[in-house]
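Researcher: Please translate sequence to structure tokens.
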Amino acid sequence: MTSNTKRIITAVVAIPLLASIILFLPQYYYLAFAVLVLAVSVLGSYELHAMLSRHTIGKLLLPPYLGSLQIIATYIQYAFFPQYSLSLYSLIGLVMIALALEIKKGETDGFEKSIERLAYTVLQVIYPNTFAIFFIKFCFMKDAWLYLLVFFALVFSSDTFAYCFGILFGKNNKGIVKVSPNKSVAGFI
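Model: Translation complete:
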């Protein structure tokens, strides 16, 4: 599938579906949207887990889906127990479990790769899931639908305009950014 095909599918299917979920399913503090956020976060965690596993000696300490407990804890916190910081407690609990597992795993290599394994494991827990927590927090705000739609409109329009400006004005200045070799200076600006 080409990148233009992916863009068209996103514009025709994904964006209206996302807007429909936000506008027409506000029940239980946007539970349908929260489940979508959870699913995307789990997929992102698996993708990050695969990338990090290539660089570590041995397996990472936690399975990729465990980080999504933060998202579930955040939803439960805001829906039922706003006086407790369940999202923070879940993060601390996951890090503590990783530290405990490293005590056993570190014995196999004399704790030589412990810092690397712990760093990659904590990154796997925090990176895809902590950002998703903010989407869950949006769900419990007054006029959440407005904040969510404005946020996604800004993201999608920014990406679209960057692509269009890159196509129009970036033919001779590609490859400036090493992370994204097809990104032009015009698209970046």
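Researcher: Any highlights?
Model: The mean pLDDT is 85.
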